[in-house]
Amino acid sequence: MSEAFPTLFSPIKLGPLTVHNRIAMAPLTRQMADADGTPTDEMVAYYARRARGGLGLIVTEGTYEQDAFQSKAYLSQPGIANAAHVAGWRRVCDAVHDNGAKIIIQLMHGGRVSDPRVLGGQPPVSASATQSGGWTLYTDNDYEKGIRNIKGDWPKVTFPPARALTVEEIHAVADGFAEGARRAVEAGADGVEVHGANGYLLWQFITPKTNLRTDQFGGSPENNVRFARLVGEKIRAAIGPDKLIVLRLSQDGVDDFTGAWPGGTAYAEAVGKALSDSAFDALHWASFNYRDNRFADDPTPMPTVLKRASGKPVITNGGIEDGPQAEAALVSGAADMVAIGRPIFAHPDWAYIVRSGAPYPWLPFDRKYVIQPPLDYGHAYPMGLVDPEWPVP
After folding, report:
1. What would the pLDDT profile of 260-300 be if each residue is shown by its tens digit?
2. CB atoms within 10 A of CB 366
3. How do strand 17-19 and strand 12-14 relate by DSSP bridges?
4. Which among 200, 267, 290, 369 is annotated as catalytic?
5. Is 200 assigned a catalytic role?
6. What is the pTM (predicted TM-score) of this model?
7. How many CA atoms lie within 13 A of 100 on its CB side?
């Protein structure tokens, strides 16, 4: 155990899963799968290298769980929707386990913030018939084009109007999450994380300004999280009691970086209470800074509120870059486990560096670490990048 950071390097039990330290790798969008969603050699190398760096748990990038209901959100996004995807993820899971870490596959549905180029001419689906005012990430950007080696025009791609899911369709989408979870476990994952954060479909239900429903799936915090609860219940029925199920939550989204829940901590408390008897083993709070809850009347960190209200352990992400910050989040009660994102892009050995206690010249985050991360020569050659020839809409 690290003398400097005894809590950070102590084991933790999350539901049925025991993890050897309290460091998780946060889910990080990369768009490096084959065009059909199959994980690549480069993905195997990427995840294996970070597992070898001393992480306790890896939460994968957002992975679409089924082909129906416009689940896919990005070009070159990995899927867990068929046998080829399972085979690809099995190689990833095996490599992570061989290097001493646990891994859960994050299941996500893009909802109204899905790239129209992956929707097959169909409108996106959402909680309500709304339209995002944002645009697809990492388009219309010369720097991004350069690091992706994309030539020619690459225009900004905006989101089309979404249609509201019917109650019957909500149950069908939840069934798709359950089937994706079953395939994730078949691939060797230690469980799944349900993406209810960052602007995607479940977030669109949980967030009042995008959920205008007046039925049992809208109109109150309890109703707004009913869809997430349903997804958790169906996943638990599909994969049994021995695998971890986590729900990721946030106030902000990819098209709403300054988003805040109405009523601040009171809304968070209601969400936590509504999830207290859910099938989820843990919650995962995502933010730019977990200490900033964007609510002046009560400065309590949102993960602290959710932990107290739900009675569930919380993985906390945002504003944690080094060992002292991680230990402080754990000791304060704002986290049971920390999720580290951008620093691990640039420093795969983050856990070992922190544990050493030695001063270290941390590199500032740069998107090139997403596109061209350090590779493990045992799994793939460097610069083995996918060229998806992304179409112009």
Report:
1. 999 999 999 999 999 999 999 999 999 999 999 999 999 99
2. 14
3. antiparallel
4. 200
5. yes
6. 0.93
7. 12
